[in-house]
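Tutorial, part two.
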Amino acid sequence: MKAEPQRHASRLIGRGITKRFGSHIALDRVDFELAGGEVNGVLGANGAGKSTLLKVLAGAIRPDEGDLVLDGQVVRMDSMRHANERGIALVSQELSLFPALTVRENFDIVGTKTIRRPRAMRDAHARRVLSELGLEIRLSHTVGRLSLGDRQLVEIARALLQEPRVLILDEPTSALHESEKSRLLTVIRHLRARGVGIVYVSHFLEEVLEVADTLVVLRDGKRVPTHFEPAKERLPDLVSAMLGERFAPSGRLGDGAPGPSRRSGAAAGGKPLILTGVRGPAQLSIPSWTVAPGEVNGIAGLVGSGIEELFAILFGAARASGGTIELPSGRPAPRSIHEAVESGVAFIPADRKRVGLALEQSIAENISAVRSLVQKMDGLILRQRDSEKVARGRCAALKIKTTSVWRKAATLSGGNQQKIVFAKWWEANPSLVLLQDPTRGVDVGAKREMHEIIWSVAGRGCVVLMYSSDPLELANVCTRVHIFVNGTLRVPLEGMELTEHGVVSAMNQRALPSNRQTTGGL
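Running the prediction step on this input gives:
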């Protein structure tokens, strides 16, 4: 990013911010301060109040009590447009792009400060911002055809085109690969040098410590009354402040390593997934692969390495161009998503908002959706009391925090929403579970609980395939990790080889010789 003269630096202050949703207090007299040219890291478990605080700062919701002060003046913001007019831009974890529109149309629709410039100048500016984020795409490209990571970068670019004085980033790297994360953090440092104040939320604690100047920790809607200095903090202390308890598993804090006994992964009944001579529509090529039940099998690879093809074929969203597949249910490769679900295949997506949940439906309706509507396991009509009983049981088992199972899914925190996606599929009793970044954008406590859920499902005899954009999560959680390179499957990493460094190196073809391709069952 080109150096620019430092602009006027803003100061945003929140005093005694309180927000209630019915009887629930989401924010309880929270104080907040952000200086221009500073990155303020906000940490907390799911449901701690982070998203609510960000929405208050961005004008999306108004606080019930307390004041917002911008450059010495108390402000009342009734919408995000009002906040944008004051130089405050929000990049939400839940993307707000319009998938049917082009990248250019999504940029135009928010009315950036450059909207009155000639089209050629606006397009040149937009391409420059996208390039700085490492995204080389056409402005005429339809957003719905982009990957989740690319859509996240387009969302960030749209905010940057507003030339904000205060930029609020909610989990901006949750769908990005390591190279994209590194480039984004570089852009953030340049913005800070230009006087932009940045509020930064991420569940990757090391990432926050790397980029933040100050820290705010929230727990149960309140600010933890401790002064944190990012350069000096120890992760166990931060996690303890977030969760209110000591929590220090091996590996990165919050990743919830399963331990040696689980790494052994003895199958508890169930049948394997068998692929023979499978070729994908693009470059996927698997001569022979048998995936055992009762284990958590990790999958790693760069974008375009074949993982997307594999998941699409197994879930019936694409057809293999050759070979045979025998699902754990004994049925062949599904020819549609509906057939995949009927065959016992479950898919937990990273993008829970777009494809994982019916946000305007209740928790109970979401949990019973697959079991009742697709598999018809409950007959033609599922009685409300039966649906409520099932939902209550799943919420208790998965520790889903809610006052009622009839609340809309949209009202829950990100971690609780993801647990509902888990509950929906577990209720359908699958035999093959496909996990695509299942803990994306959830806090350390919820992540630990989800790892426990994943292992409990594997323990029932399911075949589990888990992709994660976080190599250390794979190293900590999985029995073994299978590496995809240019569409081909390499010998898996396991035992002492299964480390974060080993996974990253293998993804980039540095750790595995080219002749170590899979030729038999694993």
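The chain has two domains: 11-243, 270-344+430-522. In part three we will examine how such features are distributed along the chain.
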